[in-house]
Amino acid sequence: MTENEFLKSYDMSKYERPSVAVDMVVFTIKDFQEDNYRKLPQKKLSVLMIKRGNYPFKDRWALAGGFVMKGESTEKSAKRELFEETGVENIYLEQLYTFSEPQRDPRGWIMSCSYMALVDSQKLNAHAGDDAKEVNWFNVDYDLEHEVESVSNGVKTVERYYTLTLQSNDGIILKSKVCYKTHITISGSWSEFVELDSDLAFDHAKIISYAIERLRNKLEYTTIAFNLLPSTFTFTDLQMVHETILGKKLLSANFRRKMKKYVTSADEVSSQTAGHRPAKLMKRNFI
Q1: pTM for the whole structure
Q2: Does the active-site annotation cover 134?
Q3: Sign of the CA dihedral with 197 first, then 201, 202, and 207 last
Q4: Exposure pattern of 52-89 as b/e (b: 16+ CB <10 Å)?
Q5: Omega into 56 within 30° of 0, i.e. cis?
Q6: Exposure check for the chain: N or C terminus, fewer CB within 10 A?
Q7: How many angstroms separate the CA atoms of 27 and 231, rounded?
């Protein structure tokens, strides 16, 4: 039998095939002004969410996304859905993980190929798609509650329990509990997320948590944070973006030493400064 003969006779119905969807964790950094006008606006990591208009999980909040259409790759589908939901294109987009648990969607076996997008908030024009009632930005808090270590059969397991809180500017609060498990052996390690309880649709709390962990890790060895900034920014803006994502303060001198090779002067000063002192604007020196 030749390969062509084999392909003609191959029975595609022999194995059950799942439907495939894409879900996108679209992050941006938003400013909010404190009462003290002499302070610079604070920054919050925000994620784009849609309120579902159809079952399942009707009226629940979920990530932007949809099904992969015939003839599409998952990346092409993600870019299409992203443009439909945000009105932007040609932005940072990377594949996160494929969530394939058979029970993750009550409609049946539907795999989710998840993506993370990073968007400068000045470019956004988010709007609800056909199957969404509303679209909204939610500020993200991802807080470690406690940690448990155990050893069994030569495997050390570290369980970190987090509370994921999403809060919109109009007062909607969505809470989820997730556990990040890391299993360590002498030959290597692997990690997994377990969703314990969630106000969100599907397993989207787990997907968002996965994206936060990925984003935090990549800050250490990439220039990924620059995708959340406008074309010009202050060194303080850059540091605040890193601190917002990491959830901790950084030493300014060390941070500037680490980042100075990635920026150059824009020969401008910022109009929005604390204490009315102009700050030098910078721009990235790489493509």
Answers
A1: 0.91
A2: yes
A3: negative
A4: beeeebeebbbbbbbebeeeeebeebbbbbbeebbebe
A5: yes
A6: C
A7: 17
Pairing of β 42-52 and β 132-152: antiparallel
- Cα–Cα distance for residue pair 82/89, rounded to 1 Å: 7
Per-residue pLDDT of the chain (287 residues; tens, 9 = 90+): 899 999 999 998 888 889 999 999 999 998 876 655 566 678 999 999 999 989 999 999 999 999 999 999 999 999 998 888 777 788 899 999 999 999 999 999 999 999 999 998 777 666 666 566 788 999 999 999 999 999 999 999 999 999 999 999 999 999 999 999 999 999 999 999 999 999 999 999 999 999 999 999 999 999 999 999 999 999 999 999 999 999 999 999 999 999 999 999 998 887 765 555 678 899 999 87
| From 72, 75, 84, 134, the catalytic residue | 134
| CA torsion through residues 30, 34, 36, 39, sign | negative
What is the secondary structure of 232-281 as a DSSP string?
SB-HHHHHHHHHHHHTS---HHHHHHHHGGGEEEEEEE-SS-GGG---EE
Token match 């945000």: residue?
86
Amino acid at 21: A
